[in-house]
């Protein structure tokens, strides 16, 4: 994202990662709008320096989302059903609403789109996957994003933790047989990765699977192997 970019819209603005990235972006001189579902969350969002916008992305049409994104320079998808409401709602939010937001970004003329996904969002989903509905929804949304003309980046953190951010990560896919629990990732580091990829043109068209590690984030996101973008 160039230094001239001024407005960033975060979808899922009251999530724990979103509440951490908003102040980083504001401190970087950007105008941030955070889309939230519940008006009661507005004060928490405002405290980060972002402007809250109440809109249920689960229910919003492409037209409504387009209006919300008009004038933005970048969109960050950090929303999710969080397992609430079962597989049907997971699909409605993590797949269907995410895809509508991509269509809205294109309609609003927003080129830059950053998707917060998870480290296991590739390949076939095993029948006994503990988060099968979520994994299917995320993989489908990620693959759809890759088919668009947007300037996309897909972020794949491992198991999210409340650990203090270190500012350093390791970019790598999971080893065969490993799970996201083997790739602990501080939410604070995820927030820093979001901010970093928005500032790094080399991250466009990249899938970045990562966990807490020992490479400074800015360096790590600038040198991601193109091969990681193969989600098959």
List key phrases describing it.
about 230 residues; alpha/beta; nine-stranded mixed beta sheet; two-stranded parallel sheet; 7 helices; 11 strands; about 35% helix
Give a topology summary.
Layout: E1 7-11, H1 16-27, E2 31-36, H2 42-46, E3 51-54, H3 62-69, E4 74-77, H4 86-108, E5 112-116, H5 132-147, E6 151-157, E7 160-161, E8 168-171, E9 185-186, H6 187-198, E10 206-212, E11 215-216, H7 217-222
Parallel strand pairs: 1-2, 1-4, 2-3, 4-5, 5-6, 6-10, 7-9
Antiparallel strand pairs: 8-10, 8-11
Helix pairs in contact: 1-6, 3-4, 4-5
Average of the residue pLDDT scores: 94
What ranges have pLDDT less than 50 throughout 5 or more consecutive residues?
none
Alpha-carbon distance between the two ends? 28 Å
Number of strands: 11
Strand order across the biggest sheet?
A: 3-2-1-4-5-6-10-8-11
Please work out how many helical segments DSSP would assign: 7
**Percent range of helical residues:** 25-40%
Largest sheet: 9 strands, mixed
Structural class comes to alpha/beta
The SSE string, one letter per element, is EHEHEHEHEHEEEEHEEH
Shape: globular
Rounded Rg: 16 Å
The percentage of residues in β strands lies in 15-25%
């Amino acid at each position: 994202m160039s230094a001239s970019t001024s407005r960033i819209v975060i979808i899922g603005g009251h999530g724990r990662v979103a509440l951490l990235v908003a102040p980083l972006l504001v401190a970087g001189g950007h105008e941030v709008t955070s889309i939230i579902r519940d008006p009661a969350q507005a004060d928490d969002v405002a405290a980060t320096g972002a402007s809250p916008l109440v809109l249920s992305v689960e229910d919003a049409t492409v037209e409504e989302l387009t209006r919300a994104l008009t004038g933005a320079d970048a969109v960050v998808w950090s929303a999710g059903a969080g397992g609430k409401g079962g597989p049907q709602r997971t699909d409605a939010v993590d797949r269907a609403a995410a895809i509508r937001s991509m269509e809205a970004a294109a309609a609003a003329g927003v080129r830059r789109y950053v998707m917060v996904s998870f480290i296991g969002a590739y390949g076939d989903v095993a029948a006994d996957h503990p988060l099968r509905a979520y994994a299917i929804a995320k993989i489908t949304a990620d693959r759809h994003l890759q088919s668009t003309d947007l300037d996309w980046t897909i972020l794949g953190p491992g198991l999210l933790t409340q650990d203090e951010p270190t500012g350093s990560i390791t970019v790598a896919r999971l080893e065969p047989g490993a799970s996201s629990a083997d790739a602990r990732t501080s939410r604070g580091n995820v927030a820093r990765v979001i901010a970093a990829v928005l500032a790094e043109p080399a991250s466009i068209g990249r899938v970045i699977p990562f966990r807490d590690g020992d490479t400074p984030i800015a360096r790590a996101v600038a040198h991601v192997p193109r091969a990681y973008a193969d989600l098959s």
